[in-house]
Specification:
16% strand; 39% helix; 2 domains; Ribosomal Protein S8, Chain: A, domain 1; alpha/beta; 11 helices; 6-stranded parallel beta sheet; Rossmann fold; 3-stranded antiparallel beta sheet
Length: 336
């Protein structure tokens, strides 16, 4: 059954309740979530009470909170109408991002002309990946549109996750022949000592976040086979020296821990028909004291060059647990 147009819910002056009516009871059940957990999340975030009455939801609270809750519920219902599910992160994003978010379709390698306006979903083998904030939408567009792209911002904002998703998309669509994922093998403030095993065993702990992202987008057996065939490479930054990376989608993660010389070396690996993405967080530099970050130098030197984009994220773009955004904001306020 079709979606009722989102006309303003009726309000009875004699009662503080506002009613929102939905036509499809099956989707309404999904909207509420198991044990009404989706409703509970909205109630807690917006300080409203929501009660189900038949195919209606009654909203109780301050008028502004009622109106905002109604907008969020309608946006989530439209999401269900389009065949997508609802996760806690989707609800949090809808609450924080506001009604400016609009659905305009799915981007894959053959649909790059659809960049104009609205969020997009990136096709991978296992899932559709949806940018949830305006900064993330702009970042995904930039990843498709530019040959060299920088994503700079705090942890949890999707910089690496979205970059790997776009890389997998371009690989399965045949626009690149391989994916290369790299990061500096720098310890985060702890001396871990000598690790046992061969070279792969020694560097894999540093590369694990890249494996995690990759396994979200490709079936495990397929990912393992592609890694074995060297069509997907996950390697430390030091292994990039002397190479020319052609026909590849290349991601350098944790780039704030690359030195200036390492960054120059990596950037000059870019070959024909390749895309390169540099991600990092300027507040989490783990280099020894007195060693400058190559990410900061690259930002200073390369801004303004055509076909190189810089995309920035803030705590508002955090898509991990909502507390992560508050933690980042607290540290930023303390360092201001």
């Amino acid at each position: 059954m079709g979606l009722i147009p989102p006309t303003p819910p009726t309000v009875d002056d004699a009662t503080p309740e506002r009613f929102v009516e939905f036509q499809d009871n099956r989707l309404l059940i999904e909207l509420c979530g198991e044990f009404d957990r989706n409703i509970a999340q909205i109630e807690q975030a917006l300080d409203v009470q929501i009660a189900r009455r038949g195919n209606q939801l009654a909203l109780m609270g301050e008028p502004d909170a009622q109106a905002r809750a109604g907008e969020v519920l309608w946006a989530l219902y439209r999401r269900l109408e389009s065949g997508r599910g609802i996760e806690p992160g989707d609800i949090d994003a809808e609450i924080r991002m506001g009604p400016s978010r609009q659905d305009t379709g799915v981007l894959d390698g053959d649909q790059m002309e659809l960049f104009q306006g609205g969020p997009v979903e990136v096709k991978t083998r296992k899932k559709l990946v949806e940018p949830r904030t305006e900064a993330q939408k702009a970042y995904v567009r930039a990843l498709f549109a530019n040959e060299l792209c920088f994503g700079i911002g705090p942890a949890g904002t999707g910089k690496t996750y979205l970059a790997v998703a776009v890389g997998v998309n371009m690989f399965i669509e045949g626009h690149v022949d391989r994916i290369i994922l790299s990061r500096p093998a720098v310890e985060a403030g702890e001396k871990l000592g000598y690790l046992p095993g061969d070279m792969k065993d020694k560097v894999d702990p540093y590369m694990q976040p890249l494996y995690d992202a990759l396994n979200d987008f490709l079936p495990g057996k397929q990912a393992a086979k592609l890694i074995e065939e060297k069509r997907i490479e996950i390697a430390p930054l030091a292994f990039m020296r002397g190479r020319t990376l052609s026909n590849a989608f290349v991601v350098l993660d944790e780039a704030q821990n690359a030195t200036t010389m390492q960054m120059k070396m990596f950037l000059t690996r870019l070959g024909q028909n390749s895309r390169m993405v540099i991600t990092g967080d300027r507040t989490q530099v783990d280099l020894p004291r007195g060693v400058g970050s190559g990410l900061q130098d690259a930002e200073r030197l390369l801004k303004g060059i055509d076909r190189i984009s810089f995309n920035y994220f803030t705590a508002r773009d955090v898509v991990r647990h909502p507390l992560v955004a508050k933690i980042i904001e607290a540290y930023e306020a303390d360092s201001a």
